[in-house]
Design brief:
By secondary structure, the protein is an all-alpha fold. It is built from eleven helices and two strands. Strands 1-2 form a two-stranded antiparallel sheet.
């Protein structure tokens, strides 16, 4: 227990929060896989208990993993975060809300198309494909901030209130520097969110009776 306390004390507030977010996210994904493998849906109470247990396990200090033959110097979740990085607030909101609400969220189909378009244009440019770098907009550009607010207004007009809340939380997290990054892009999107949007569109396209209209299943 003392080792765990020392490990937590050695982390900054932002690092501890990032590790906690990653531990909860990994636990949710593990529980979803467990339900899929065993073809069983846990109750909300059981989900919550298992989530707390898995999250705590991922925070175990290195000495406990050494007993299991894993020569780790940090909690396991720290290595996961080192490989994956911090997820966007939008991704965390959509993932966690789907888990605790126990239902798929209805999201605008155009929003998923927009994510795919951003991924195809934004990431190559941000990685240096040209001299134009849209990633720089995230460092306090008022034009970019107004564009995000305009998107939120359009989504609100489309009555996708859950997505509006997710965007609002992302803006609030960026304003208060919730994560280590100071770039607004990192709070709004990440590669996993864009990949999810692409897979969701592909599944809906090849579904025998695809959903028509402005909203689509997450």
């Amino acid at each position: 227990m003392s080792t765990l306390i020392n490990t937590i004390n050695a982390l900054s507030g932002q690092q501890l929060l990032a590790l906690l977010e990653m531990a909860i996210t990994c636990s949710i994904i593990l529980l979803w896989f467990s339900e899929l493998i065993f073809a069983q849906s846990f109750s909300l109470l059981m989900r919550s208990l298992l989530l707390c247990g898995l999250t705590g396990t991922l925070f175990l200090p290195s000495e406990y993993w050494n007993y299991l033959g894993a020569p780790l110097e940090l909690p396991l979740v720290a290595y996961v975060r080192g490989m994956v990085g911090d997820l966007s607030v939008l991704t965390l909101f959509l993932l966690w809300a789907s888990f605790f609400l126990r239902e798929k969220l209805l999201l605008p189909l155009q929003f998923k198309l927009g994510l795919v378009f951003i991924a195809l244009v934004f990431y190559p440019l941000a990685l240096g494909l040209s001299m134009f770098d849209p990633y720089a907009w995230g460092y306090g550009s008022w034009i970019f901030l107004l564009a995000v607010l305009l998107v939120a207004l359009i989504v609100w007009w489309a009555r996708s209130y859950g997505l509006v809340l997710a965007i609002a939380l992302a803006l609030a997290a960026w304003a208060f520097q919730w994560h280590e990054s100071s770039n607004l892009w990192d709070y709004l999107i990440d590669p996993f969110l864009c990949l999810w949007a692409l897979l969701s569109l592909a599944i809906n396209y090849y579904r025998p009776n695809p959903i028509k209209g402005f909203t689509d299943e997450a």
